[in-house]
Design a protein that fits this description.
This protein is α/β, with parallel strands linked by helices and 236 residues long. It folds into two domains: 4-69, Ribosomal Protein L25, Chain P (Beta Barrel), CATH 2.40.240; 77-235, Alpha/beta knot. It is built from six helices and twelve strands. The relative contact order is 0.15.
């Protein structure tokens, strides 16, 4: 745990917090913390700073905290992702959160299995748990916003055009001759399809809305690998 993510309910005074549950167990078993240790802390959706441990008991610890630093800047990127398999979704949400993505749209496509939309991992609490892990890993405090859109054409033709003004719009698609740009210095929307990719009519629909279809080379990557690679390439 690289950052102890605090919530308002943890505060017992303006500068004192009590940590219990998963965070306490992780700090004790993995971080091996001791009395008087100083830890990096941050208040959810607020500032970052440090905390000094003042007391450790069997099931909790107390710290005095000082939060005086802004969190890292978010990536200038909106991720639009065809809903992946539930287990893969968990890993992707944690990963893109740690990279600094703050807007994530989960969309339907022809190759997305209907059963995926019934997964309990789409529950807001489960998604939040994965985002929290990503924030703790990357020393960030700002939760991303996740939106679910089950109608591909409606989303692409009605919502995406309003979002794409003055942004670079890219669709990851292996069946194209255009190589994905790198080190882009502007706001970007990145659309990534499901396993097997978008079907041709979906790619055409995106292209009609101004989305450039790009590939990342001859290798076909798993979705979770492609997501990380593409974000890193675009935002390096």
């Amino acid at each position: 745990m690289n950052l102890v993510l605090l919530e308002t309910k943890d505060f017992i005074d303006p500068d004192r917090v009590v940590i219990t549950g998963r965070r306490f167990e992780h700090l004790m078993s993995v971080n091996k913390i001791k009395d008087r240790d100083q830890l990096v802390c941050g208040l959810l959706n607020d500032r970052i700073g440090t905390g000094r441990i003042t007391r450790i008991s069997d099931d909790s610890l107390e710290m005095t905290v000082r939060l005086d630093t802004d969190p890292p800047k978010p990536l200038p990127l909106i991720l639009v992702l065809a809903l992946p398999r539930p287990k893969m979704l968990k890993r992707i949400i944690e990963s893109v959160t740690s990279l600094g993505v703050k807007q994530i749209y989960l969309i339907n496509s022809w190759r997305v299995e209907k059963s995926f939309w019934q997964s309990p991992w789409l529950n807001a609490d489960h998604l939040r748990d994965q985002m929290v892990l990503g924030l703790e890993q990357s020393r960030d405090t700002i939760l991303p916003q996740i939106y679910q859109r089950r109608f591909f054409t409606r989303f692409v033709t009605e919502e995406l055009p309003m979002m794409s003004t003055d942004r670079l719009c890219i669709t990851a698609h292996p069946k194209t001759s255009t190589l994905c740009p790198s080190s882009v210095d502007r706001e970007t929307i990145l659309v990534i399809g499901p396993e097997g990719g978008f079907i041709d009519i979906e790619v055409d629909t995106l292209e009609k809305q101004g989305f450039l279809s790009c590939h990342i080379g001859p290798r076909i990557l798993r979705v979770e690998t492609a997501v990380t690679y593409l974000i890193s390439r675009l935002c390096a």
